[in-house]
Amino acid sequence: MMNSLTIKIKRYDGEKTWYQSYILPYEKGRTILWSLTTIRETLDSTLVYTSACQHGICGSCAIKVNGKSFLACQTPLDKVIETFQTTELIYEPLANFTVIRDLAVAWEPKMAKMKKIKPWLIPTEEGSEEKGFLQSNEDFHKIASSTDCILCGICASECNQLHVNESNFLEPFIWNRAYRYAVDSRDKSPEAHVGPAYENELWKCLHCMACVTNCPKHIDLTEEISSLRKMSIRMGETKNQGARHAFAFFNDVKNNGHLNEMMLPIKTDGVIKTAATKLPFALRMIKTGKINPLERPKKVDGIEGVQKIYDYAEEVENK
Amino acid sequence: MKKYDVVVVGAGGAGMQAALNAAKGSKLSVVVLSKIFPTRSHTGAAQGGINAALGYRDRTDSIEKHFKDTVKGSDFLADQDAVHFFCENMPKIISELDYIGVPFSRDVNGHVAQRPFGGASSPRTCYSADKTGHAILHALYEQCLKNDVIFLDDWFLLSLSVDNGIFEGLVAMNMREGKIEAIQARAVVIATGGFGRVFWSRTTNAINMTGDGTAACFNAGIPLKDPEFVQFHPTGLASTGVLLSEACRGEGGYLLNKEGERFMERYAPGKMELAPRDLVARSIETEIKEGRGFGEGMKSYVLMDLRHLGAEKIMERLPHVRELALNFEGVDLVNELVPIRPSCHYMMGGIHVTDFQTLATPVDGIHAVGECCSVSIHGANRLGGNSVADVVLFGKFAGIGARQTAERRDFAPTGKLEEELKRWREEFGRMRAKKSGIKFFEIRDRMAETMWYNVGIFRTETEMAQALKTIDAAIEAYKDVYIGDSSEKYNMAFINYVEVGNLLKLAKAVALGALNRKESRGSHARADYPKRDDQHFLAHTLVYYDGGNYRLEYAPVKITTYQPEERKY
Amino acid sequence: MTTFRYGFFPGCTLESAEKELKMSTLKVAEALEIELIELKGWTCCGASHIQDIDELVGTSINARNIALGEALHVDKIITVCNTCTLMLRQSKKKLDERKELRDKVNEGLSRANLKYKGTTEVTHLLWALIEDYGLENLKKKVVRPLTGLKVANFYGCHILMPPKIMGFENPANPQSMEMIVDVLGAENVPFSQRLACCGFHAVFPAEKEVNRLTQMNCLSPKEAGADCLVTPCPLCQMQLDAYQPGAQKGFDKDIQIPVLHLPQLIGLALGISPKELGIKRHIVDALPMLRARALV
């Protein structure tokens, strides 16, 4: 039987950082936000966090609990306790954000980044301020999920690329905005959104699925990133490592069924770059027998069938 | 001293519309000041939709019908010239929102989809599933990004400086730095939202809906119009008060009592569950009072049944509502009944706006728009789907109005402004240094409790007199509050302290307005005066605050077309 | 005892750089009397890349792979790769939930005289050992408990996420690896990068960042006192092992740590020789450490 919770909060006052522990009585059916409010109103009114609507639509209250990000207002403490099998909880501000004080983070730098992908409609000539647009229900559904984003920052906090990225990689919620406008039937210039997405390290997404896993609005962020990549390829952006790498898989499967690992670096980076950068790596691999430069993958049984499936997909695509 | 031509306070739907339109085609410097990041604003919580007589779903719908429904819904307290202006401009506003990319749900012809809503004689509520406010708020924010609107995020309005009727500017705190500054302005647009938090935990409102702008205007001598009219939304979740959209009833949800009856038959045999909010909320409370509800006391409730809509329709039209019921009540409304109870939702009253085309107030230079003000188009009861409509439409005209004001009006001297600045800096210093006293949370809870029990859905003279006493005592106690945080930077305790002060000031106006209105009209239901009294109270309440005293006056209602008649549904 | 029979989907790396994983998987299966029937004519799963070119191709090739398994009349297809598991399950989920897509894909498959029916599940060896084989049974087969071996479990992303497709355990705090390691008699070492991403899928376009990840992913268990990393995914293994010397270059802290495949660790406890498990085929040699722990 649980009687109490120990909540350790990462504090920051603009200069120093420390962890402070609070003990709260356990009450069934409470949320993370309840614990923050209770600490603030009964134990320590210096604690700072952000919260507004309290029902999962304003996106203010995301924090990290025991290393994972949650929307505080709609996450039951019981769920957190069950997940981590402990009543000792550690609250920290979202990762990959600038902290203002305690659990409050700054959004302005993120919005400056978001502007790059032009997160607004570039209207086609079919619409007007006077008449609006016609849009089919099917086309509305293309943007229905992506417009659910509440800018809570959880995807960014969980993003494995952002943890190590020191350049321009965009937050998943920004990919989402680029996608949302690029696929809107009312937008005349998808490339105005996809182009900057491409230029800001679109192919650096690690495919780790942390964003889609943790999104409280269940937005399929990784599928959206994949779609942005397809759109960038259609725009002609094929001469980059990411696209070449993906094409290598695509073509190897079609030709042989299996991947030709030996040729992958060359297909991705080209001979010259591979020779310059991957040589020590390759030699190590050869030495331990991990790769055999003389070995070529055999075509799989039924490769003709695979090729027919490719042909079919191409026909569907062209239809 | 900072100096801007136009300062917009509040970055919700109304504030952002105002900022976009104030800057449009002008060289004016425009800034939006907000105590929270713009997309956190409460416009985003609007679920069900936005009304416009586009006639896509029902060709017989018209501006005249929207007009009539709104006037009738207001229990004839709305100003009919303003309502007409509102209804006739709404269709174009929807097109404008469509044109900036708001993701509206669509009908089979590709038009913006419309659904039935309470108190509406035709299905005219446009929507984006059940996240309409969210969709609009984000689209407006993105337009602000596009147009390089300057935001001062985490800036908190402390007061407006008005010297002998001359508006000078405002005093605000840069919360992150803990610096209080004066800002000189030619025009200001107050768009700070409602103050439902006078009921603290018994409201669907966000935690920051504390009426800061309304209180600042009130302090500056601008009266509050009709503050006693508080809308209780019929379908708050029983245990948390979280709002379940009116779209639930719009899409065909039933309300059931303990006997399993669709009890709305007793109160509105014609419109049933689709009667307006005030009527449905009172019906639910009557059922509970008369022993036909579930549970006891504060935990009483009735049930809403959506199961007959089927999973597919629920997922298509009410996905957010379903999630809310799952997350906050543990109920899947696809196959379970949802416990619901009315919850304070909306303030019809607010800053006295005197010109519905410019949203001007009695003080030249100060404009007000959205829930913080009263135009009044909602009168004694607002119709569902008319509030997001209100903010986007009047936000636009407030922006245009403020632009015109700023182009015409020069900066005023700053004598009083500097005094105000000094006063607030001292106050901040004093509160940071104060080491003992009463916690403001306690005072806030005392206020909320008395407001819920004594100035709630049914009101009586004795109870409201009691409420006034309690509020007066709380106002007295507030003088000895301590905040428990001596920090300079991001001192939320100080902000909350000021917010509670604002709430107290406004709560008293609500109670006074209610006590003096000896009739029942719209949301204001007096058990001791159950009838509407047009002879004495077909008038707007105006509450003034001068020198710490509250004074009430009444102003005529503009009636252009519809004479008051009995309101039947 | 029940017989355990699976359609085996090895995945590309098992045919080339990670041959030792195929060796060790087959050896372990044999020792546990699990029958693995390799799908005849299987192709690459797309490795999370093909969908970036053509989603229909990505789904179709996996529909084909699963159909090959269905033809074997097995309940489940088994893999030993996180990404293969995700790719197959993702396609399966789409095909099972969207009839329109299934019909479209089946039209393509019909040209190869195949049909996706949706009758076979897709699992990973890690899951199968827990939910099919049973930890108790596994424990009975342990002949050389890995006493004293300090193991850092590196899950890799795709065995956990997204849970709507994977769903075996809570990705915020999985326990399956720890349960297996317990049964094998080794000691679990908690470390901060336990649930981190290895970065393998973007090692070319995001070389610098993935290099940084490898530094952190190797340093964290090492500082926590682990003897080795173990992972259920050959791609994580390759990233952490084969790219480790590159990551070490220019990094001032020593990150050297051996990285084992899960079946190798199990194989050791089952008494299978390091040679049969292909332990020598790693870039960072695990044998000195195993010898020091008297496990070989």
TrEMBL record, chain B:
<keyword id="KW-0285">Flavoprotein</keyword>
<keyword id="KW-0472">Membrane</keyword>
<comment type="similarity">
    <text>Belongs to the FAD-dependent oxidoreductase 2 family. FRD/SDH subfamily.</text>
</comment>
<dbReference type="Pfam" id="PF00890">
    <property type="entry name" value="FAD_binding_2"/>
</dbReference>
<dbReference type="InterPro" id="IPR003952">
    <property type="entry name" value="FRD_SDH_FAD_BS"/>
</dbReference>
<dbReference type="InterPro" id="IPR015939">
    <property type="entry name" value="Fum_Rdtase/Succ_DH_flav-like_C"/>
</dbReference>
<keyword id="KW-0274">FAD</keyword>
<keyword id="KW-0249">Electron transport</keyword>
<dbReference type="InterPro" id="IPR030664">
    <property type="entry name" value="SdhA/FrdA/AprA"/>
</dbReference>
<dbReference type="InterPro" id="IPR003953">
    <property type="entry name" value="FAD-dep_OxRdtase_2_FAD-bd"/>
</dbReference>
<keyword id="KW-0560">Oxidoreductase</keyword>
<dbReference type="InterPro" id="IPR036188">
    <property type="entry name" value="FAD/NAD-bd_sf"/>
</dbReference>
<feature type="domain" description="FAD-dependent oxidoreductase 2 FAD-binding">
    <location>
        <begin position="5"/>
        <end position="388"/>
    </location>
</feature>
<dbReference type="InterPro" id="IPR027477">
    <property type="entry name" value="Succ_DH/fumarate_Rdtase_cat_sf"/>
</dbReference>
<dbReference type="GO" id="GO:0008177">
    <property type="term" value="F:succinate dehydrogenase (quinone) activity"/>
</dbReference>
<protein>
    <recommendedName>
        <fullName>succinate dehydrogenase</fullName>
        <ecNumber>1.3.5.1</ecNumber>
    </recommendedName>
</protein>
<dbReference type="Pfam" id="PF02910">
    <property type="entry name" value="Succ_DH_flav_C"/>
</dbReference>
<dbReference type="InterPro" id="IPR014006">
    <property type="entry name" value="Succ_Dhase_FrdA_Gneg"/>
</dbReference>
<keyword id="KW-0813">Transport</keyword>
<feature type="domain" description="Fumarate reductase/succinate dehydrogenase flavoprotein-like C-terminal">
    <location>
        <begin position="444"/>
        <end position="569"/>
    </location>
</feature>
<dbReference type="InterPro" id="IPR037099">
    <property type="entry name" value="Fum_R/Succ_DH_flav-like_C_sf"/>
</dbReference>
TrEMBL record, chain C:
<dbReference type="Pfam" id="PF02754">
    <property type="entry name" value="CCG"/>
</dbReference>
<feature type="domain" description="Cysteine-rich">
    <location>
        <begin position="7"/>
        <end position="89"/>
    </location>
</feature>
<feature type="domain" description="Cysteine-rich">
    <location>
        <begin position="151"/>
        <end position="241"/>
    </location>
</feature>
<keyword id="KW-0560">Oxidoreductase</keyword>
<dbReference type="InterPro" id="IPR004017">
    <property type="entry name" value="Cys_rich_dom"/>
</dbReference>
<protein>
    <submittedName>
        <fullName>Succinate dehydrogenase / fumarate reductase cytochrome b subunit</fullName>
    </submittedName>
</protein>
<dbReference type="InterPro" id="IPR051278">
    <property type="entry name" value="HdrB/HdrD_reductase"/>
</dbReference>
